[in-house]
Design a protein that fits this description.
Distance between the termini: 59 Å
Structural class: mainly alpha
Number of strands: 2
Low-confidence stretches: 1-21
Helix content: over 70%
Length: about 140
């Protein structure tokens, strides 16, 4: 989707180039941004000038749509990972308990299980503390 130039005749009958910019929907630009590493590569995929994207990114309404789309993509990816977390944990446990597996492989699996358990516990504790702080804040606001 490149900008096109058409020749239009002016009153004197001479040709004058006039740019007829194709209107690219915000959703199309957002999709390209979400699947591209850079603005340059997104612009190349859409066959438009980078400045078109930079201009759109200066618009708060566009950025609101873009940020929402990014959040949705991130949540979708997180959901996929969460669905597979139990299988991954089961795989690690199976490897750890496999007497025929090399000792280093078993140790690596056990270490990873411990690392993830500590991380999960820390996150759970932090979330609980945040919940308590939020409850305290609401209580303070009601006073």
């Amino acid at each position: 989707m490149k900008e096109r130039c058409n020749v239009r005749k002016n009153k004197a009958g001479k040709g004058a180039f006039q740019t007829l910019s194709k209107k690219i929907r915000d959703e199309t630009i957002i999709e390209a941004l979400l699947i591209s590493a850079t603005v340059r590569s997104a612009a190349a995929k859409l066959e438009i000038n980078e400045q078109t994207i930079y201009r759109r990114k200066r618009d708060p309404e566009f950025m609101q749509k873009y940020n929402e789309a990014r959040r949705e993509r991130t949540e979708a990816a997180r959901n996929v990972l969460q669905e597979r977390a139990h299988a991954a944990a089961d795989t690690l446990a199976t490897i750890m308990q496999d007497a025929d597996a090399p000792a280093q492989t078993r140790v690596s699996a056990a270490a990873e299980i411990l690392r993830q358990t500590v991380k999960y516990t820390e996150i759970t504790d932090i979330m609980q503390q945040l919940d308590e702080l939020e409850a305290w804040r609401r209580e303070q606001e009601q006073r």
